[in-house]
Design brief:
The chain has 129 residues and is mainly α. 55% of the residues lie in helices and 0% in strands.
Amino acid sequence: MNKNADAAAKIKDISGTNPLKCMKCGKCSATCPSFNEMDIKPHQFVSYVVNENIEELVHSKSLWKCLSCFACVERCPRDVKPGKIIDAARQLVIRQREGDYLSPDEIPDLLDKDLPQQLLVSAFRRYRR
């Protein structure tokens, strides 16, 4: 197995989803409140994992623009759970950093005045460990 195949398998394992069930209807992306901010849309995340295009996926700004609201999970007619795939890709990146999390000094440069507070609270809960 190559590096991308290993990463794709790890994303599937962490998320507990089956991306092969996706029929690319786009309902998840249509529901996403961050759609306009994303370079890779929720339904495309699923395709990237299926095609093992993990390197581009983990370097996309969409990985961090997702609000983790899971509207896409609720909307998916095939129970693919694209939000969980996005979250699993985030976890993969964090695990590769080996605990080298953001320092408090780095955070102000990443904040945007239009950033929803929900994103900050969600990120704090998920990544504080």
